[in-house]
Automatic annotation (TrEMBL):
Name under which the protein is recorded: Acetyl-coenzyme A carboxylase carboxyl transferase subunit alpha
Function: Component of the acetyl coenzyme A carboxylase (ACC) complex. First, biotin carboxylase catalyzes the carboxylation of biotin on its carrier protein (BCCP) and then the CO(2) group is transferred by the carboxyltransferase to acetyl-CoA to form malonyl-CoA.
Keyword Cytoplasm set for record: yes
Domain (CoA carboxyltransferase C-terminal): residue spans on this chain: 35-292
Binding partners and assembly: Acetyl-CoA carboxylase is a heterohexamer composed of biotin carboxyl carrier protein (AccB), biotin carboxylase (AccC) and two subunits each of ACCase subunit alpha (AccA) and ACCase subunit beta (AccD).
Catalysed reactions, semicolon-separated: N(6)-carboxybiotinyl-L-lysyl-[protein] + acetyl-CoA = N(6)-biotinyl-L-lysyl-[protein] + malonyl-CoA
Subcellular location(s) of the protein: Cytoplasm
Source species of the chain: Mesobacillus maritimus
NCBIfam families: accA (TIGR00513), AccA_sub (NF041504), PRK05724.1 (NF004344)
Pathways involved: Lipid metabolism; malonyl-CoA biosynthesis; malonyl-CoA from acetyl-CoA: step 1/1
GO terms for MF: transferase activity
Length: 325
């Protein structure tokens, strides 16, 4: 099957064997039902062993799967009356970020997300989901508009990182990301962020300052890619698998560290196996988050966001460090 991953090979081979026996049974008078039942039992056992013990690098592979659902896939399944907005009113329209106004169960919301392509042509048009500064400025324009009209903001995060090219730097890539971080921290409406694929570096954080931050089970969220980390730490990008093990970039790790609020379960093998089911899981979490956050005042929303990020990580004050009371 196109897009199958390395760690899934035992499952794929067993499924192939079962299908071959079923086809053979149809075309002959031989009864192979007992053999098929044995293989199905073994398949169930193998699937359980593989999918309940997925390694960090396997999750990285699933997050990068070419058929993994994108922001626009979820928008079409979760929201109604979506009206896409374009441009940052300064330079141009960056198609690596999509956003606009929609309704979620009748509630007007603003939805924004990274958008990669489904094929080579679209990936080139959308710069492989790596935004330029105008993409982040478009996102901020939509966020400020949402704040003005008191609409909750929903962000879908799925990028390897902000585009690091010369043109992006000339147009203020770092400033655009920093501005988003600053402004999102003070938004007076509910902000919900969901990592649906790769959440890479500042390019992801620029849409990631929310009251609630959720992650799909097989997504990743990190300051750098495993390949980049391996190149820095060991000067060998081929050690990316080792880096992924130590970086704590998976949803279970980040949940344990208190960086994300909830892990959204996926179908066995990843969200691409059943997009409708995945949209249903996201729908459930979004409804719960909006219900909880809608009870907070504007000041409480900002304070909630401040306290959330203040509690992340461990630190020691200078006085504590030098032993001064």
């Amino acid at each position: 099957m196109a897009g199958d991953l390395e760690f899934e090979k035992p499952v794929i081979e067993l499924k192939k064997k079962i299908n071959e026996l079923r086809e053979y049974t149809k075309n002959t008078e031989m009864d192979l039902s007992s053999e098929i039942e044995k293989l199905e039992a073994r398949l169930e056992k193998v699937e359980k062993e593989i999918y309940e013990n997925i390694k960090p690098w396997d999750r990285v592979s699933i997050a990068r799967h070419p058929e993994r659902p994108t922001t626009l896939d979820y928008i079409s399944l979760l929201f109604t009356d979506f009206f896409e907005c374009h441009g940052d009113r300064l330079f141009g329209d960056d198609e690596a970020i999509v956003g606009g106004i929609a309704k979620f169960h009748g509630l007007p919301i603003t939805v924004i997300g990274h958008q990669r392509g489904k094929d080579t042509k679209e990936n080139i048009r959308r710069n492989f989901g790596m935004p330029h500064p105008e993409g982040y400025r478009k996102a901020l324009r939509l966020m400020k508009q949402a704040e003005k009209f008191k609409r909750p903001i929903i962000c879908f995060i799925d990028t390897k990182g902000a585009y690091p090219g010369k043109a992006a730097e000339e147009r203020g890539q770092s400033e655009a990301i920093a501005r988003n971080l600053f402004e999102m921290a003070g938004l007076k409406v509910p902000v919900i962020c969901i990592v649906i694929g790769e959440g890479g570096s500042g390019g992801a954080l620029a849409l990631g300052v929310g009251n609630h931050v959720h992650m799909l089970e097989n997504s990743t969220y990190s300051v750098i890619s495993p390949e980049g980390a391996a190149s820095i730490l060991w000067r060998d990008a081929s050690l990316a698998k080792k880096a992924a093990e130590s970086m704590k970039i998976t949803a279970p790790d980040l949940k344990e560290l208190g960086i994300i609020d909830e892990i959204i379960s996926e179908a066995r093998g990843g969200a691409h196996r059943d997009v409708n089911q995945q949209a249903g899981e996201i729908n459930r979490v979004l409804k719960a988050s909006l219900k909880e956050l809608s009870c907070l005042s504007e000041e409480e929303l900002v304070d909630h966001r401040y306290k959330k990020y203040k509690l992340i990580g461990e630190y020691t004050s200078l006085n504590e460090y030098i032993g001064v009371n």
